[in-house]
Amino acid sequence: MSRNDEMNLGLGGKGMIEAGSDSLLNAQWARVRGRLRAEFGEATFRSWLKPLTLAGRRGQDLRVAVPSRFMRDWVATHYADRIMALWSSECPEIRSVEVIVDARDAVAADDTADDVTPIEAPHVSSGVSKGGQPVNDDQPAVSVANFAEADGLAEVSATLDPRLTFDNFVVGKSNELAHAAALRVAESDVVPFNPLFLYGGVGLGKTHLMHAIAHHIKKKQPQKRVIYLSAEKFMYQFIRALRNKNTMAFKELFRSVDVLMVDDVQFIIGKESTQEEFFHTFNALFDQNKQVVLSADKSPSDLQGLEERMRTRFGWGLVADIHPTTYELRLGILQAKAEQAPIQIPSKVLEFLAHRISSNVRELEGALTRIIAHATLVGRAVSVESAQELLKDLLRANDRSVTIEEIQRRVAEHYNIKLADMSSPRRARQVSRPRQIAMYLAKQLTTKSLPDIGRSFGGRDHTTVMHAVKKVEELATGDISFAEDIDLLKRMLEG
Questions:
Q1: 256: helix, coil or strand?
Q2: Alpha helix ranges (H) inside 103-243
Q3: What is the SS3 assignment for 101?
C-alpha cells in the first residue's frame, strides 16, 4: 500500500506526535490559520475554518480535526488543497494533510482562540482506528448526531396543519403556476428547480402550498428528512445555538436535510448574522443538490435590504408569483369551505362575501367561519342581511368609493357579459337588461348626474338613463328573484 493510500484510509496511532509537543508546529499552524482567514474572509473562516484544530503529525503526514462528519467532508472537498499548499510553504517536509473527526471538540470549537490549543490524539478517524480496526463511519462518536436526534427535526420543524394539503387547495388563474410548481417539487424524485421561490401578498396561499409540499413528501417518501419552519424560527434556532456554543450541531442539522422549506424569508433582512448563516446553509444544500423551497411577500428582486448575493441565489431556480385572487377563485374557495360546514350556507351569501372581501383568503375564510359560528351558536338563519350586520367591521375595512366603472364591471361580471357591452349599441335583452341595471345602480350609488351617467354608457341620452331606472324599479316590484339580484349587487357595491 502506498503512503497516499494509507493516508486516505486514516493513520494508526503509532508514531503520531502530539500537537502540543512541538511548539514550532503550533506556530506554523497559527500562521496557516492567519492566511486562511485573510484569503477566504472572516465569514467563511468563522463558519468552516476556525473550528479546525491541530491533531498531530507523524513524519511527513499531518492531521487536523473537525467536530463533525459533515464538516469533515465539506472542508476536505473545498479547502483541503489550499490547506495543504499553505502547510507546504510553512513546512516543506509535510507531504499530506488529513481531515479527521474529533467528537470531543464539537462544542469547544465555537470558542477556539485564534492561537492553537493542543489537543489529544483524536479517537475518531475516517478510516482505521489506533488498533488498526476499521471504524464504523455510519455511527460516529460525534456530538452533533445527538443534536439531530434529540433536538433535531421534531423540535426544529414547525407542526404541519393537516388541512393544508394539495387536495384542499383551490386552483385558479392567479395561483396555477405556483400550484403546479409546488406539486412538481413534491412529486419529483430529483430536484426539478432549486430553489422554488413562492411570493405574494398576505393570505394568498404561500403557506398552504408549503405545508402541502411537506405533507406530500412525507407521505410519498417518508425516509426523506424534511424541515419546514419560518425564517423567524430559523433565526431563533441559530441564536440559541450561538448562546449554547453549539453552532456546529446547528450546521450539521440544517445542512444534512433532504428538503429545507423556509417561510417568510423577508424576515431575515437586516439580521446580518442570521442572513450570513442562511447564505452558507443555502449554498451547502444547493451544492449537494438538496431541495430548497422559500416564500416571501415580494419577489427576490424587490426585497429591499437583502444582500445581492442572496438575491441572486434566490432567483436561480423558479420564482412563482401568487396574484391577488379573482372573484371566481374567491367564490370557489368559499364553496369548498361551505361544503364542510355543519349548516347550509345560501349561495347568495357566498357570492356577497366573494364580492365584498377581496383583500386576502384568510380574511375571506375568517368571515365565513364567523358566520357559521354565529349561526351554530345563536341559531339565527344565515342571510345576506345577517352577514352584513355580523361582518360590518370587516366590510368597513374593505369599503371604498363606488364608481360607474366599478358598477359596470361588477354587473357585467355578475351577468356574464362583456364589459364593452355596457357601452355598445347592442339591444339584445341579455345585454340591455344588465346595462339598465348598471344605470339604475349608478343613479342610486353615485352622485353623478343623469347626463354624466349616460355619457359613461356609450354617450347615451339622459332620457335613456331615466327609462332604465324606471324599468328596473318596476321589475323589482313584481319579481322577487330580480329584486334579490339587485339588492345583492347593491350590497356588494356599497361603501
A1: coil
A2: 143-150, 153-156, 176-187, 206-220, 231-243
A3: strand
The tens digit of pLDDT for each residue in 251-260 reads 888 888 899 9
- Which of 233, 35, 7 has the alpha carbon at shortest distance from 125? 7
Report the distance separating Cα 12 and Cα 21, nearest Å. 18
| Phi-psi category of residue 494: left, alpha or beta, with phi > 0 → left and psi -120 to 50 → alpha | beta
DSSP type of residue 201: S
pLDDT surpassing 60 at residue 127: no
Name the pTM for this structure: 0.51
| Maximum distance among all Cα pairs of the chain, rounded to whole angstroms | 109
Read off the pLDDT of residues 380-414 as tens digits, 9 standing for 90 and up.
Answer: 888 888 888 888 777 766 555 678 888 998 899 88
Is it the case that residue 54 has pLDDT exceeding 90? no
Give the chain's radius of gyration (CA, Å). Answer: 33
Tell me how crowded residue 389 is: count the other CB atoms within 10 A of its CB: 12
324 CB neighbour count, 10 Å cutoff: 15
How would you label 51-62 residue by residue, b for 16+ Cβ within 10 Å and e otherwise?
Answer: bbbbbbbeeebb
Q: CA 452, 472, 328 angle in degrees (round to 5)?
A: 85
| Contact (Cβ atoms closer than 8 angstroms) between residue 343 and residue 382 | yes
Say if residues 43 and 276 touch (Cβ distance below 8 Å).
yes
Interval 148-159: pLDDT, tens: 333 456 667 778
Show Cβ contacts of residue 294 under 8 Å, excluding neighbours closer than 6 positions.
195, 196, 197, 198, 261, 262, 265, 314
The one-letter amino acid code at 237 reads: Q
